[in-house]
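Format notes (please read before filing issues)

Several people have asked whether sequences and structure tokens are stored in separate files. They are not. Every record keeps both together, in the order shown below: the sequence lines, then the token lines. Line labels are part of the format and must not be stripped during preprocessing.
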Amino acid sequence: MAMSKGFKVLEKSAPPNPYSIILQHRNKDSALLFESQAVVSLSSQETDTLRKQYHKIADAYGCLGVLQLNSGESCMLYLVLVTGCSSVGKVGDTEVFKITQSQFLPLFYQSQGEDKVSEVRKLLNSGTFYFSWNTGKTTDNLFDLTLCAQRKGKGASHDNRFFWNRTLFIHLIRFGIDCEDWLTRAMCGSVEIRTIYVGHRLARAVLISRLSCERAGTRFNVRGCNDDGNVANFVETEQAIYVDDSVSSYIQTRGSVPLFWEQPGIQVGSHKVKMSRGYDASTSACERHFSQLKRNYGSIYVVNLLGSSMIGGSEGEATLSNAFQKHLNDSAHNDVIQIIFDYHQEVRGSSIESALGKFKKVVDKYYDSISIFSAKNIDIYNIQKGVIRTNCLDCLDRTNSIQTFIGIEMLSIQLMLLQCIDKKQNVNRFEEVFKQMWINNGNEISKIYAGTGAIQGGSKLIDGARSAARTIQNNLLDNSKQEAIDILLLGSTLNSELSDRTRILLPTNILHTSTPVLREMCRRANEFTQPTNIRITIGTYNVNGGKHFRSLAYKDVSLADWLLDCPNSALVNTVNLKDHPSDIFAIGFQEIVDLNASNIMAASSDNAKAWSEELEKVLCRDASYTLLSSHQLVGVCLFVFVRKDLVPHIRDVALDSVKTGLGGATGNKGAVAIRLVIYGTSLCFVCAHFAAGQSQVSERNADYTEITRKIAFPMGRSLYSHDFVFWCGDFNYRIDLDKEETRLLASQNNIQRLQEQDQLTRQKSQGLVFKNCFEGDITFLPTYKYDLFSDDYDTSEKCRAPAWTDRVLWRSRKYTIDPETTSESAKGKLLHYGRAELKQSDHRPVIAILEIEVLQVSYTKCMEVFYEVVKDLGPPDACIIVQPVEDIDSEDSIFDDNLMSTILQELATYGEVTLVRFIDDHTLSITFRDGQNALAASQKGTISSSSIPLRVTLKSPNWIEIVRSEVNLCTNNTIPLFGEVSAERPLRSAPPTPRRQQPSRPPAPSPTPLIPSRAPAPSPARPPRPAPITPEPIVAQASLSSPPVDTAPPPSCAPPPPPPSSSTPPPTAPPPPVPARQGAPPPLPARPRPVM
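Then the structure lines:
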């Protein structure tokens, strides 16, 4: 049966409010009504009755779901339809289609937000999204695009990692609609299917690349990994051959280097690589990545194609490659085999063919331990036990070449297992087809990530044109594409204050639940959080362009006197730094380079690197610290160091900067900001340098306003949306007294009189700057301006007046919202505010030590509270059914005007009614605005009526199960390729993954291997098919539980725990062993070698 436009959309003709449409399908008796942000299923009788009021507005091949977009406090809904598609090919009864045209129908009158939707539509129409359609009569989908053949053989239904429109299903699930009947899953990547005849048999050659949606984005916007261990451009590529009822499949993966790195700025030609976090700050994420890989794929073999030369354009690549190797060697996953192959160097020294020949000698010995999957019907003969993970910088061109080579190498084994190798021409035919398919596959993946086809080295003209196109696309056009990807994957959780708060407190798989649930979870946060105090040290220092860590004239004074020992020099030392060192150091510098024209255009980072190394050396005197992140804008630079034991509890680190020099054109003045989340609390550190000059107060105020307005972080986070904001820097506010009087008062240590005329204090008291921010009492002399290496204020010709230009302030969001009930530590308790006597600059450094309250989240308790909230708030569809208490024989409708008036009048006491439907003459469906209203109405049970007693029941009494299915849709449900499902461990506060016991490398084969090593074939005759392997038992997904009590949030792949009432203890007995086979299987035949 050919694919046709089976979907029809009807719009209400000349409708009054609310807006209403009906979705019909040619092969279904029922229809869907979308009205008042609700979805209901209509019977054929209801549809026929209502249809007279509607007219057709669209036809479609399929429906992808409902896109939810935030617009202030309201939510805009769009019905997403596939209106154009082209067939890619068929496998069995399943046909695969590429989406070429889509339509977004607003489920409201207004069309605001159209620009955002048009970008998402452009993304869906780009030719990289696919869906499958079963043409047979059975509902069992033989060929699911999100699943490889081996996982399908283990009973998996779909893989959420590659299910790109999963959030579009949520709206329909919420209203109890069976999405399998109405919606289709879309996968992003590449699919190619070719038909090849092997004698009288028909074979399907299939090459599928599945792009993960866990960390999706464009080339320069998304690099490296995130805190959950998901990497950019992670692609699972499956090379499969289907012959009759047999299949042979081989999987490879690619993905960005699993560290925190980026390529900032305009990228042309050679690309600089910046490690965006310190070495130790990447350890946890790297270990999570390989833990996930091992769980999902078995044994991992890393092929690293990055450059290794520290000279020339590949210096950044070599730094990244060395860091990757060191992390892997130092981690619990050092049993992962690494193949280091500098692709460019090898190809440059010879030809591609000889380089690949050299690579073959290295990788060939690992093929046997990885193996290939093969099956016939439900009988599994061989299984793949591991995967090769290939990476270069972009995971595009070099990776394409290596994966093509490996795929062609394994092709002959696949053909052998399918008994299709009796003629050499068959092998040649398959090789020719798959080589072209691999070229097309590389182009498609490259278009998704980089915007152009792959650079293959075949034509210098084509490669040059594509390279130029990439530069334009990646630097100028990718931001809008990145926004479209975020909207498609995140939808309603993208930009809102509520979303930002829930992302900090809650696991990722419940962030898409309804707004009332999320609000209630935030309100009840104290039930699953535990406050604890941490100590933060903030320092600021204008170093006047110098990089001297120790003054030549004062060799006994060092950075430790400022950062570690400053409280000791105070008259009263109330800070016990020895027993309780600071947990976080945020250290800001100004004029870290000379503010000349060349540095303003392209500032050197050499001074920043030198300061970073020296700071880490000094800080580690009392405790073990590591650089979390740093950011530089010309002369302004900010470093954040954290105690190493806190690194696993820190996530969502992001950077931003704002230029304010010359009206925002240059960075000689401006600010840098670093934000992070520690436990369940968000912090933001800002280091700024405002306009100079005694009388430029309004310019400084304008700098502050511009910085607070422009600083923005991913997911729409603004500066003051954070729980705590810490300001430090050279704000350049002066003292409104003449020079001589200022000097005299300073010499008399009359700090109170000077502070009365301090510009910052005055402007702050008027609410013009730093509103709701706190600063400690100033008990130290002005920090500006001194003669170098001297205790004398400026004696130069300009003779500038002393001033407190260097300051530290902070702001507590909780105190700003509710100052009455906020504790001192939740406000921020100042322990010390002073200056140090470092004399190598014309400024003195300032330091502030604070104690603040952060929230530790118990994610087990969080899920318990979540299901309590879901139970209390009622069904998400907010729908009740009204029927007579007793059966009525009359065929006429019982709901006359008087009865309807009575019903609606009584139900109005519970809440706003948004939709009323007559299911039949004796049944009424009523939808409220809120689920609690429906729950309250159903709990009463009856409606008082003078004529007919009526019973009220919930349409969805099992709404907790509906919410659980909604949560499962946003949970990683990947079934392991090899082995069984193991219990997940928490991402943070977790013990390291135990090292796999291996006597040597490569790993020795097990005593009774499932797949023996290849042996030379005794003759070219067709080998017998090995006996099938009994499928391994799979532990049910529901048996996986959340992490125990600690503060570690569950990984995104962990399913949500059930509510306490229905929880079942996990089985304590070990899983049953794989049943033994009768007799040893015949050896896997050797790959045929080409005849010379």
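For reference, the curators noted about this record: Residues 983-1023, 1031-1047, 1049-1092 have pLDDT under 50 and may be disordered. The radius of gyration is 33 Å.
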